[in-house]
Amino acid sequence: MTVDHPLSKHSGVVKIVEVGARDGLQNEKGVVPTNTKIELIERLSSAGLIHIEAGSFVSPSWVPQMADTPEIMKHLRSNPPAAPTGVTYSYLTPNMKGLTNFIHYSSNTGVSASEHASEIAIFGSASEGFSQRNINCSIAESLERYRPVVQKALENGIRVRGYVSMIIECPYDGPTSPVKVAEVVEGLLDLGCYEVSLGDTNGVGTPGTIGTLVNYLIKDRGIPAEKLAAHFHDTYGQAIVNCLVALEAGIRTFDSSVAGLGGCPYSKGATGNVATEDLVYFLKGTGVKTNVDLDKIVEIGDWISKKLGRKNESKVGTALMAHRRSDGSRL
Ligand SMILES: CC(C)(COP(=O)([O-])OP(=O)([O-])OC[C@H]1O[C@@H](n2cnc3c(N)ncnc32)[C@H](O)[C@@H]1OP(=O)([O-])[O-])[C@@H](O)C(=O)NCCC(=O)NCCSC(=O)C[C@@](C)(O)CC(=O)[O-]
């Protein structure tokens, strides 16, 4: 029997941003064939995921795994998904060169970037140590670097999402102050980001620390909950309960990664995001609508884990596949 959480009455449809093809694959050691990435993205959209991070226009010497992003973008733009409609693909851009490449490859397919449903994401940090290691500049320099990027993107009709990493603790600098997180979130929103995703990059957050932070941002700093997203890694097994805390605080956008793929190349020991299967199962269990087909996501998680030769990190995916194997039934 499913008992709806009291939130289900007024939570509306939650937005899920699937980051498996970017955050999930950027740290894979072996080469992941471009065709596999494209198949993953297309299967994810066919399962009802309509916000999908498809790659990064970052320096290939910093993140070699994302070097084929132009090919992926070209393919996706010339082969839009048949269903569902309204899929948005997002690409990380760390500087003006990234945005220039994004515009170049999107206009090379005969459709202008503004006409097509694709957007960019810029990524800052709440800790200086991670900012230096990830994007080779200070927090203040990163916001200045992003200013003309966002301005040009908006002039071209391209929506910009923001990220702030290390919201709880940084492996290089130690605990992060909520005040610093708020300053970076406000800085990114002031630049023109429509939403800022809160990255617990190394998954150390707990309901206590995440709850304190999100309530500080929303209640004390007056940042509208609808401008925030939760991007929780599951390194310490806290991601789902942290999603519940964020949901209770009013956040309605959640980033997740099929099969819990992932990790950040510049955050040692960081593992994948909350698995999309676990998130969808959890939301369904609280009575919150998602429009995502759990059955299909579980199959995709099983497929990509086998393709990559890695363990499926989704508990729900693993349990439902085992159940299916034992009685041969659908999920
Ligand atoms: C920001 C830079 C470029 C600075 O790196 P830099 O070395 O200071 O850059 P530079 O301007 O001196 O350029 C160095 C070389 O890179 C090239 N270059 C420069 N920019 C680009 C570009 N956009 N696209 C392609 N090439 C580029 C540039 O042309 C040059 O090439 P060379 O002349 O040596 O042949 C670098 O640090 C970088 O690319 N960093 C990205 C790191 C990254 O992608 N990290 C993972 C994503 S963040 C994350 O995962 C966290 C998140 C978002 O998921 C949230 C969370 O969990 O917390």
From TrEMBL:
GO terms for biological process: ketone body biosynthetic process; L-leucine catabolic process. Gene3D superfamilies: Aldolase class I. Pfam families: HMGL-like. It comes from the Eukaryota. InterPro entries: Aldolase_TIM (IPR013785), HMG_CoA_lyase_AS (IPR000138), HMGL (IPR043594), PYR_CT (IPR000891). The keyword Cell wall biogenesis/degradation does not apply. This is hydroxymethylglutaryl-CoA lyase.
